[in-house]
Write a structure and sequence with these properties.
By secondary structure, this protein is an alpha+beta fold. Helices cover about 30% and strands about 10% of the residues. It contains 3 helices and 3 strands; from the N terminus they run E-E-E-H-H-H. A 3-stranded antiparallel beta sheet has the order 1-2-3, with no helix packed on it. The longest helix is centred in the C-terminal third of the chain and has 17 residues.
């Protein structure tokens, strides 16, 4: 692995929550967003260019929610009081899955009319 140009004891780590690199000293347990004093900035720039993840575009997620009477909030934009059982909700979802997999209908189109989530108006787009 290329030299990051950091002082002894320091390493580059990646924050999953911020999706950014940060600097960590294992012996002192210090972490910081800015490079520590004594960093060779040219080496660090080269290291970061070779070793950081670059996003390849946006990732999108969509879903179709079918609530049941034991859901955290058993109501939706479609129904004031949802009374179906969890097992009935699962069967409904399996039916929707079959229609989507067969190509009969898209997830977005089905979510728009069948999802109990407010994302239905956006074709299930989260």
């Amino acid at each position: 692995m290329a030299d990051a140009g950091l002082p002894t004891g320091w390493e580059v780590r990646h924050s999953n929550s911020k999706n950014l690199p940060y600097f960590f000293n294992a012996s002192s347990k210090e972490s910081r967003w800015e490079p520590p004093e004594g960093t060779d900035m040219d080496s660090l720039k080269e290291y970061m260019a070779q070793n950081t993840r670059k996003p390849e575009g946006k990732i999108r997620a969509a879903h179709l929610l079918v609530k049941h009477k034991d859901s955290r909030r058993p109501s939706s934009w479609k129904e004031q009081n949802i009374t179906r059982t969890k097992e009935e909700a699962i069967e409904i979802l399996k039916g929707h899955e079959g229609r989507i997999r067969s190509g009969e209908v898209s997830l977005g189109d089905l979510a728009q009319t069948e999802s109990d989530c407010s994302s239905a108006k956006k074709h299930g787009d989260l």
